[in-house]
Known about the structure:
alpha+beta, 12-stranded mixed sheet, 17% helix
Amino acid sequence: MSPRRILPLALMAFALPSLLGAGSLITTQQYARKNSKDKLYLQKGDLRVETEGGQVMIFHAADGALWLLDPVRKTYLDIGAQLAAKGGHPAGARIDPVPATYQKVASGADVNGFKADQYDVLQGTEKIAEVWLADPKAIGVDPADAAGFRLLAKRLGYQAPAYFGFALSEGSPEGVPVRTITYSKGQRISINEFQSIQQQEMPASLFELPKDFKPGTVAASPGGPS
């Protein structure tokens, strides 16, 4: 191979990590008023949710940016800006002065082949969720990727943790939420379960706001409160 060809290939190899990186692609099943299979992308703290209905949520860990996207209308809501304007609580989120607490119910439960510890999530004496937390390494998720769940919880910054269906708050136990059941006034309103996990290369653009999207309304919030 000539030196002229070696140099461009070397430059491409040097640039590739900034364009692509290994991440965790998780397929989830949601059972609620509308059942759906969704996709969850994790990469080094960044997080993207794609619902079967077409909505998208992106969390960019480096700067805390958080967007809801409507790919059909090519519009987006800047939830990060809403957080700043509303004192840390996005529109429609449940706000409660009582911090969420986690009570362990069982160890080593099976969730679609994933071993996890089960917790009741309480707001005072009211159970608002059940969550099954798995060790990321045990289920094949890079802990650096799994950090996205906790970083998102910290970014949202509120005490009721069921928004986006992950049932995690900043003070929750460590682990990946492989199953989440949410409740409202004692009634079960949704179930989210991991179905499969695989590692794959992901372009950085998955976790960035598309340049051709404009501020506007979004049809529905992915994984938001039911």
